[in-house]
Each structure stands twice: as structure tokens, then as C-alpha cells.
Design brief:
Helix content: 40-55%
Number of helices: 12
Distance between the termini: 39 Å
Radius of gyration: 17 Å
Order of helices and strands: EEHHHHEHHHHEHHHH
Largest sheet: 2 strands, antiparallel
């Protein structure tokens, strides 16, 4: 599918402002079309292996849905070539987006490697971000597959994906991660009635959900309930608790 060669590296954090600066035209994209964009991710097998080790099938499917939702949003008119805004190459966006979506659930993992990690007592977004940061540096820095700036953007996008700020700017990566996660967890009304329909076609969502089923979403509610009880100061509690309960 034709996509711009570059995208805005930074976009408004506010959903309404993002729409005002964009030209989203949701098209019924096929999953096969989205997978044509996957070529930059083939060298990140170590991350896929780690995710498959740490995640339940439920969490793995959530991460995969987020990735393909985000690719669809990117394809439907995400800001590009805005005056005076730094640009980021398409292939860079795709590979960083893949890693961010794939790894963003580490803090929710019940695998012993996650629950015994020294950052486990932190809010899950920071815990998962730290685990992702350590993994990415250990796996890809020496081979020059990622640089410090890219790893920082991935990590920060994971840490802030549950924080829908009203003001300021987010990186393209951070905004795509947040939009896709909120769509998957809260549905089309994540930012107001049917708000996500402005970004992604329902037929695209249905096909992605068929490939990566939304089984047992109650696990997520239960996990957040436990977290809010054990960590009442967690980051998510400041932003998303009203959506969940």
C-alpha cells in the first residue's frame, strides 16, 4: 500500500488536536496489506522469542492486535510532512512500533522472570519499560540494529502509553502505541463516542481480532483491580481507572 516515506516525529498529545492536524481517512485495510509493511521487523526475532516466553496467549494477542491497529492508523492519514516538524522515516517508525507494541506488556506478565525483576514493585508501565530497555540494549546495541535515541523512544512510549496527556507533544511512536492500546482495551469510544472510527475502519479491526482473538479480556480488568489495590499510586490510576470501573 502507498505510504509516505516519512512521518511527523512529534504530534499533539491531545486527541482532538491530533485530529485537527491530520487528514485521517479510514479505509478497510486487509491484514495481508498491513503485513506487507513488516519487512523491517524480521531481524528482531530475539524480542519475539522473549515475548512468547513471558506472555500468556491473552497478552501476546493483545500486543499483536495493538501492532496491527497502529499500522492501520499510520496508514490512514497519520501526520506527515507538517511544516517545521522533524520527520522520521517510515521503516524506522515500523520497526520501533513493532518493538514497542510487542514489549509493552512486560509489566503485566506473571512469568517468574517478570515478577522477580527488581522493578516489579514499580507501576507496571515503568516496570515493563525498564525490562524492555534492558532487553533492547543487551540484544541490539552491539550489532547497531538500534541506537540510543531509538531505544529511549521505545522505552518512554511503553512507560507513558496509559497516560493520555491534554497538553504538549508526544512522539509518533508514543501516540500510536497509546491509540492502539486504548482502542484494544476501551473500544471505539476510548476518546469519546465512536472516536476511534475516525482513525481505523471497523472491518480492519474485525479481521485483526479474528487473527488474534480477544479471549478472556476479564483477565485485564482483574489484573488492573489487583494493581490498583496493591499500588494505589500507580500511573494508570491517575488516567484510566474511570474507563475500567
Amino acid at each position: 500500500m502507498p505510504l509516505p516515506e516519512k512521518f511527523d516525529a512529534f504530534v499533539p498529545s491531545n486527541f482532538v488536536e491530533l485530529l485537527a492536524q491530520s487528514d485521517f481517512q479510514p479505509a478497510p485495510l486487509k491484514l495481508a496489506e498491513l503485513r506487507e509493511l513488516d519487512s523491517p521487523i524480521v531481524t528482531f526475532g530475539g524480542s519475539l522469542n522473549l515475548a512468547e516466553k513471558l506472555y500468556s496467549q491473552f497478552l501476546f494477542n493483545h500486543c499483536q492486535r495493538c501492532y496491527y491497529f497502529a499500522l492501520a492508523i499510520l496508514s490512514n492519514g497519520f501526520p506527515s510532512n507538517s511544516p517545521s516538524v522533524p520527520q522520521i522515516p517510515r521503516e524506522t517508525v515500523v520497526k520501533e512500533l513493532y518493538l514497542t507494541c510487542l514489549l509493552h506488556g512486560f509489566g503485566l506478565s506473571t512469568h517468574v522472570d517478570a515478577t522477580t525483576h527488581p522493578a516489579h514493585d514499580m507501576t507496571f508501565e515503568f516496570h515493563g519499560g525498564i525490562m524492555a530497555y534492558e532487553h533492547l540494549r543487551a540484544e541490539y546495541i552491539s550489532a547497531h540494529q538500534l541506537n540510543d535515541i531509538q531505544i529511549a523512544d521505545i522505552t518512554q512510549s511503553i512507560m507513558l502509553h496509559c497516560a493520555p496527556f491534554e497538553h504538549g507533544k508526544s512522539s509518533a511512536l508514543g501516540m500510536l502505541m497509546q491509540l492502539s492500546a486504548f482502542l484494544d482495551v476501551f473500544g471505539y469510544g476510548a476518546f469519546g463516542p465512536d472516536s476511534m472510527e475516525k482513525l481505523i475502519h471497523r472491518d480492519t479491526v474485525r479481521e485483526i481480532e479474528q487473527a488474534f482473538p480477544r479471549d478472556d479480556m476479564a483477565q485485564l480488568d482483574q489484573g488492573f483491580q489487583i494493581m490498583f489495590e496493591e499500588k494505589p499510586n500507580c500511573l494508570s490510576g491517575h488516567f484510566i481507572s474511570a474507563h475500567l470501573f
